[in-house]
Design a protein that fits this description.
With 115 residues, this protein is an all-beta fold. The protein is built from no helices and eleven strands.
């Protein structure tokens, strides 16, 4: 499985970005998908995840601002990020967990939010 993330960039506080992650290989539709982030000097943390049946889970820090979604026809998972804050600045990684509970990671896409 290979994951290719895109959509990061520089945005002012209050702005929006949409991250995309395209998967190749594996069986996308039965995989759990997630977005994680890692800020400088901090550990990687879960941002949001979506299961194969569409159930979602969010970190408290992003609830009400971020939305994760998946398009199985396009093997793509999205993260819509609204009302961005400087503390959202991080490298964002997409994650796929397959039927055998193997973890796969994308290369990361950088998000910088200026105040």
């Amino acid at each position: 499985v290979q994951l290719q993330a895109s959509g990061g960039g520089l945005v002012q506080a209050g702005g929006s970005l949409r991250l995309s992650c395209v998967a190749s290989g594996g069986i996308f539709s039965i995989s759990a998908l997630g977005w994680y982030r890692q800020a400088p000097g901090k550990q990687r943390e879960l941002v949001a995840k979506v299961t194969s049946d569409g159930s979602t889970n969010y970190a408290d820090a992003v609830k009400g601002r971020f939305t994760i979604s998946r398009d199985n026809a396009k093997n793509t998972v999205y993260l819509q990020m609204n009302n961005l804050k400087p503390e959202d600045t991080a490298v964002y990684y997409c994650n796929l967990v397959n039927w055998y509970e193997n973890n796969f990671w994308g290369q990361g896409t950088e998000v910088t939010v200026s105040s």
